[in-house]
Write a structure and sequence with these properties.
The chain has 505 residues and is mainly α. The chain folds into two domains: 1-210, no CATH class; 227-427, no CATH class. The chain contains 21 helices and no strands. It has helices at residues 3-37, 40-61, 64-78, 83-106, 108-116, 122-147, 151-203, 212-250, 253-269, 271-289, 293-320, 322-330, 338-351, 360-363, 367-382, 385-392, 394-418, 426-449, 456-474, 479-489, 494-504. α3 (64-78) runs parallel beside α6, α9 (253-269) runs parallel beside α13 and α15 (367-382) packs antiparallel against α17. The radius of gyration is 23 Å and the shape is globular. The chain starts with a helix and ends with a helix.
């Protein structure tokens, strides 16, 4: 991996992490307003509507999204015209999204009774069908920009769309329009995202109409790559809901709520490796298109270094401050979820390096393997569920989800190491973990001596300073790292790189 490529990936990850922090914060604030202005029954209706949107997006995508991003990036790497792929992707999604919206509108009475337990919400489902079209289209648009490696545009569009979505929904709700205002707000946000995206695509001349004789071969090519991804999407969709669905059977609603809050807090932490993984995908696809497999191996090794140096202390830091974090994040009512958050954080730290190479399975067109790994991960995790859940409740479900992360990471590593595609930066790994454990012990000792939720910022500050000092003693950071930071922040941020150099090197 060249210095320029490393800087590009680092900047892309920074854009996505910043975008995720902004959108997650806005969504959390909006959720507070929504929960206070809707009855429990109406909150149940919003869950049913959200489930409908997610299911429609899954079925209308057909797994094509990742295939489109891969082939656009691959064609760019080969300097081949990729516009037919773009046109094929957009044309296919317009057809499938329109079909999903029409079905939703026609089946609204049935969906209202099935999901929302009453036919009184038929008009809401019909109104949702309009949002459904733009919501489904947004996934393909995001994958198009990913294929172009326009990470900055993805971040800005997501921020604009989500801000409009949440602010409009809350405003209309507070104005007295209730659930109707909520759905209208969602629709306006998705329309804003789609409109801005199409204008960027049009001005960038990324889209050109192609004849049917060009579309059909491209459609077949993408379909061959994507059908296992569609099955994977189904499995992933079930995975995202299986834990809470099982808890609804085995646990009380209060336990489900506590688990959900802890899971949401952990999700915010996982934005960092997710952003890196998304940024690396087009880079790996470009190198694959150029047959530069050695660049991919070097990219994996460099990425594992920075994942472990940056994410490990954050995960273990969240683990030791879980009680303060969840109390300030959601309130004292959810403080009992601190152990759940701590367990998820530990498993997240152990499996985080998978973000550096997980997308290689898609780049090398090993989509059936991805499907098998995810099915195996869920299957292995479900085996102990009948034992863990009755004994430990929501805490047991946290352990089940943690096992899923570890199994997925282990199987992915095993498969890719057999093809000699994965090399870890072992020195960075043990030095980062050593420094993080020292930080954990220091913060834990301070909390033991004097604990107060409102001292969370102090605990974070002490932990950060301890980690940096430990990195210096272990000589974990070198001049190449500082040089990368200096190029990343530019001249305006020179004081940051200079300060880090004095502290760490």
């Amino acid at each position: 991996m060249t210095e320029t490529q490393a800087i590009r990936i680092a900047k892309g990850s920074a854009y996505l992490v910043t975008q995720s922090i902004i959108t997650t914060t806005v969504a959390a604030i909006a959720f507070g307003f929504i929960a206070r202005n809707l009855t429990p029954t109406e909150m149940g209706v919003t869950i049913g509507l959200t489930l409908t949107l997610g299911l429609a997006q899954l079925l209308s995508d057909l797994g094509f999204g990742s295939g489109i991003a891969k082939y656009i990036a691959e064609y760019r790497g080969r300097n081949v015209d990729y516009s037919p792929i773009v046109f094929t992707g957009i044309l296919t999604k317009v057809f499938t999204a329109s079909s999903a919206a029409i079905v939703c509108a026609l089946a609204a009475p049935w969906l209202s009774i099935l999901l929302l337990k009453s036919g009184d919400y038929t008009h809401l489902v019909q109104l949702l069908s309009l949002d459904l079209f733009f919501f489904c289209l947004s996934l393909t648009i995001s994958n198009l920009f990913l294929g172009f490696n326009r990470i900055k545009e993805i971040a800005l569009l997501n921020v604009a769309g989500n801000l409009t979505r949440q602010i409009t929904a809350v405003s209309l709700l507070l104005y007295g329009l209730g659930l109707t205002g909520l759905v209208v707000g969602w629709t306006l946000g998705d329309i804003v995202y789609t409109t801005l995206s199409i204008s960027i695509l049009w001005r960038g001349k990324h889209v050109r109409m192609s004849p049917i004789k060009v579309i059909i071969p491209n459609l077949k090519m993408i379909a061959r790559f994507s059908w296992p991804l569609f099955l994977l999407g189904v499995v992933t969709f079930l995975y995202n809901w299986f834990d809470r669905a099982i808890l609804l059977v085995y646990a009380s609603l209060s336990e489900v709520a506590v688990y959900g809050v802890a899971l949401q807090a952990f999700t915010v932490l996982s934005l960092i490796p997710s952003a890196l993984s998304m940024t690396l995908f087009p880079y790996y696809s470009e190198q694959y298109g150029r047959n530069k497999h050695e660049n991919i191996v070097a990219g994996v090794q460099a990425s594992t270094r920075y994942v472990t140096l940056l994410f490990t202390p954050l995960a273990l830091g969240l683990m030791i401050t879980a009680n303060s974090t969840i109390t300030l994040f959601a309130g004292p009512s959810y403080a009992s979820g601190d152990t759940i958050l701590a367990i998820l954080s530990l498993f997240g730290a152990l499996s985080s390096m998978g973000a550096a190479f997980g997308t290689l399975l898609l780049v090398y067109e090993m989509t059936p393997t991805v499907l098998l790994i995810n099915v195996a991960s869920i299957g292995v995790s479900l085996v102990p569920s009948p034992i863990f859940l009755p004994l430990f409740g929501a805490l047991g479900m946290a352990m089940v989800r943690g096992v899923t992360l570890i199994v997925s990471f282990s199987l992915t590593t095993f498969v890719l190491r057999r093809r000699a595609l994965v090399k870890f930066d072992k020195k960075a790994f043990w030095k980062s973990w050593s420094a993080s454990v020292i930080m954990l012990l220091v913060v834990g000792l301070i909390e033991y001596i004097y604990f107060n939720h409102y001292l969370l910022l102090l605990y974070v500050l002490v932990g950060g300073v301890t980690y940096l000092m430990a990195l210096r003693l272990l000589k974990a950071v070198n001049q190449d790292d500082i040089h990368l930071i200096r190029n990343l922040v530019g001249k305006r941020g020179a004081f940051i790189s200079d300060t880090l150099e004095r502290i760490l090197v």
